[in-house]
Amino acid sequence: MRQEIRLNAFDMNCVAHQSPGLWRHPRDRSGEYNRLGYWVELAAVLERGLFDGLFLADVLGVYDVYGQNADAALRNATQIPVNDPMLLVPAMAQATRHLGFGITCTLSYEPPFTFARRMSTLDHLTEGRIGWNIVTGYLDSAAKGLGRDRQNAHDDRYLIAEDYMEVVYKLWEGSWEEGAVLRDKERGIFTDPAKVHRVHHASQHHRLDAIHLAEPSLQRTPVLYQAGSSTKGRAFAGRHAECVFMSGPSPQVVAPRVQGVRQAAEEAGRDPASVLIFALATVIVAPTAAAAAAKHEEYRSYVSVEGALTLFSGWTGLDFSRYDPDQEIRYIDNDAGRSALENISRADPERVWTVREVAEHAGIGGIGPVIVGDPAGVADQLERWMELTGIDGFNLAYAVAPETFVDVVDLLVPELQKRGRYKQRYGEGTLREKLFPGGRRLLTPPHPAAGYRPFPASR
Ligand SMILES: Cc1cc2nc3c(=O)[nH]c(=O)nc-3n(C[C@H](O)[C@H](O)[C@H](O)COP(=O)(O)O)c2cc1C
Q1: pLDDT per position as a tens digit, 242-279
Q2: Where are the alpha helices (DSSP H) in 251-374?
Q3: What does the angle CA 320 – CA 313 – CA 68 come to, to the nearest 5 degrees?
Q4: Domains identified in the chain and CATH numbers
Q5: Tell me, what is one Gene Ontology molecular-function annotation carried by this entry (predicted)?
Q6: 84-88, 179-183, 297-301, 332-336: lowest mean pLDDT where?
Q7: What is d(CA 169, CA 75) in angstroms, rounded to the nearest whole number?
Q8: Which of 99, 267, 344, 412 makes a 20 to 30 Å CA pair with 405?
Q9: Which region holds residue 124: left if phi is over 0, alpha if psi is between -120 and 50, else beta?
Q10: Residue 447 contacts residue 221 (beta carbons within 8 Å)
Q11: Facing residues of 243 across strands?
Q12: Which residues have CB under 8 Å from 332's CB, separation 6+?
């Protein structure tokens, strides 16, 4: 097969995730986000389309940067209301056999001890199909909900994250040896105590002296995803991430970031090609190019400009309600996400964005590209992105849910398969084994997690 194009679905346990206003579209069903049946149905669609995974974003706070209050976010359902992503997984896992689940959890507000157990539990219940999108948050409103005045400073968050990773690696990898669990009914020994070890950790941020509460799951450490692309974010990804999500409006913006992450992996002693990189995109596909263009126009008529600017204000930490719509956007450092603002300020020297242009662009699929066409036209564009950027695949957002995903599965996937660019069936094994063919279900050296497993892995 030519280089495979990998597909993930990008969603969140909320309404109209990256497409503010589109919840008003008559066929959009994202308003059913609080019903289990909606998610089970979506998981089945994605598995029919051989998607590698469903990636669920999560943010603990509310988007109250725009206008300095939560009114616009609430009016437009801009990622509020938002439910817990983890709790969706068991039902979707029960209805599928192969689909992976990349779950976003911030490490800024929960002790590693309880978090590690919840992830282990999900890895058990899904039989090794769990991934973790490691985030530190970007909204001060989240910090306030958790009893703090504001979030930690941008670069400090990555330092704290390093420490957190050490603790969870110790718990997942170093507490229970392979073979510790005997389930020996005859001798009456469930677990051999000699093979379970206490984890000690004492740092400025975390103290722990305990054994991990869960027995080892198939993957132990979930497949690690990461999405920050600032200098610190790239270095963190280079050390830890197995998969990286990126968002940028054009291949010109994304390509140097891809190179940066691969270089960071190399600097961390890892094979740069072993990190899978997915770019955010929204695909609007129909049997003919004209039908796809008409569908795009129709979708656009439901975009909420206020909702788009509310999202963008939260991502960048800048209150866009204060700017003239024709004002050009320039870069400034702050403690929200840095790559979001770079996307539309200094990442592409040939393109200067106004506030109005950002609002129009981000109305469907956030800051990623919207790729519109018949199946062949869309496939051509995806192939072009792959060539120009060196990514491994796409993280597909929706305009109208689940219609956007159904269209991709029914129309685009067969075209990619015909071109030898897409798998014909799933591989066997855990999410890690599926993503890295010939790979192993456990992390191996030189990944730092493997260094916390002081005993030989069975496989
Ligand atoms: C595609 C994509 C998805 C993201 N999803 C989340 C998310 O669900 N929750 C979150 O707190 N941050 C999310 N982020 C934000 C990143 O984790 C990170 O905080 C942000 O990109 C800023 O990091 P940077 O300054 O290193 O670029 C996402 C970023 C990207 C590009």
Answers
A1: 999 999 999 999 999 999 999 999 999 999 999 999 99
A2: 251-267, 289-300, 305-316, 339-343, 355-362
A3: 75
A4: 6-177+192-308+364-451 (3.20.20.30)
A5: monooxygenase activity
A6: 332-336
A7: 41
A8: 344
A9: alpha
A10: no
A11: 225, 276
A12: 318, 341
What's the CA-to-centroid distance between 134 and ligand 1, angstroms? 9
Q: How far is CA 128 from each of CA 100, 123, 360, 426, 452, rounded to the nearest angstrom? A: 9, 5, 40, 15, 20
d(CA 431, CA 413): 20
Cα 315 to ligand 1 centre (Å): 8
Q: Is 229 annotated as a binding residue?
A: yes
Cβ proximity of 292 and 284 under 8 Å: yes
The CA 237 to ligand 1 mean position distance, Å, reads 12
Report the C-alpha gap between 106 and 126 in whole angstroms.
Answer: 21
Q: Find out whether 158 is annotated in a ligand binding site.
A: yes
Ramachandran region of residue 280, left (φ > 0), alpha (ψ -120 to 50) or beta?
A: beta
Q: Under DSSP, is residue 186 helix (H, G, I), strand (E, B) or coil?
A: coil
Q: Are 247 and 367 in contact (CB under 8 A)?
A: yes
Distance 166 CA to ligand 1 centre (A): 21
Q: Is 104 annotated as a binding residue?
A: yes
Instruction: Choose among 344, 320, 322, 321: nearest CA to 331.
Output: 344
Q: Let me know how many helices (H) and strands (E) the chain has, helices first.
A: 16, 13
171: number of Cβ within 10 Å: 28
Q: How far apart are CA 402 and CA 409, in angstroms?
A: 11
Residue 154 labelled as part of a binding site: yes
Whether the pLDDT of residue 40 is over 80: the answer is: yes
pLDDT at res. 364:
96
* 277 to 98, 196, 373, 426: CA distances (angstroms): 20, 36, 24, 19
With vertex at residue 241, the alpha carbon angle to CA 457 and CA 175, rounded to the nearest 5 degrees, is 35
